[in-house]
């Protein structure tokens, strides 16, 4: 031992070794949950492959989780979903979803709106074998014109509507409101003239 140095008593040396290393606190990184897009195809026996393909495209483009209620349409193995949903399952899905996409069936549209969503609606096209006639297209055009839904006939419109809805949150306008339409951002979607919406549904269903 060099002159002038003193040995460290063993108990003190052991105590120093037992003191944990103090590190500066690390900032906590809060990760937002991945948003969920619920896609509802209904139970019509016609396949709706186009909307399933669009759902995959939206998942790829946005990184959102996608759940597809696919009915008679074959679901690719890389998508999550179910052929049919019970009432409780549908209610839970609508509650968890950031965005709801439906085909042009009035029942699912009303369910989505009752849960506070402004649904993105893709009407089935009979020319593509997705339905027997064009009544979904006519129905969706009418209610979109009144501001009750965001209609998407083509993939670019669909991408845009879903992306806007993901940013804006539940009930946010998912696209431009047509002339004469009601701006859905003025209040809760579930409170937006439900009686008027019901009258439109009855009127259009009786025409078909």
UniProtKB/TrEMBL annotation:
<dbReference type="InterPro" id="IPR007235">
    <property type="entry name" value="Glyco_trans_28_C"/>
</dbReference>
<feature type="domain" description="Glycosyl transferase family 28 C-terminal">
    <location>
        <begin position="89"/>
        <end position="146"/>
    </location>
</feature>
<dbReference type="Pfam" id="PF04101">
    <property type="entry name" value="Glyco_tran_28_C"/>
</dbReference>
<protein>
    <submittedName>
        <fullName>Glycosyl transferase family 28</fullName>
    </submittedName>
</protein>
<dbReference type="GO" id="GO:0016758">
    <property type="term" value="F:hexosyltransferase activity"/>
</dbReference>
<keyword id="KW-0808">Transferase</keyword>
């Amino acid at each position: 031992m060099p002159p002038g140095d003193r040995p460290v008593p063993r108990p003190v040396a052991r105590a120093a070794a037992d003191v944990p290393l103090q590190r500066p606190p690390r900032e906590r990184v809060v990760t937002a949950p991945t948003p969920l897009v619920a896609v509802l195809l209904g139970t019509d026996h016609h396949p709706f492959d186009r909307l399933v393909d669009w759902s995959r495209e939206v998942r790829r483009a946005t990184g959102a989780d996608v759940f597809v209620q696919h009915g008679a349409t074959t679901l690719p193995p890389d998508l999550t979903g179910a052929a049919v949903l019970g009432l409780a399952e549908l209610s839970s899905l609508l509650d968890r979803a950031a965005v709801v996409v439906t085909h042009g069936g009035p029942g699912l549209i009303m369910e989505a709106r009752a849960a506070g969503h402004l649904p993105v609606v893709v009407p089935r096209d009979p020319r593509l074998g997705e339905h027997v006639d064009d009544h979904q297209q006519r129905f969706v055009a009418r209610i979109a014109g009144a501001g009750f839904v965001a209609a998407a006939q083509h993939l670019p419109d669909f991408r845009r509507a879903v992306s806007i809805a993901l940013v804006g949150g539940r009930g946010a306008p998912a696209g431009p409101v047509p002339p004469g339409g009601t701006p859905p951002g003025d209040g809760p979607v579930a409170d937006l003239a439900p009686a008027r919406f019901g009258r439109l549904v009855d009127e259009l269903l009786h025409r078909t």
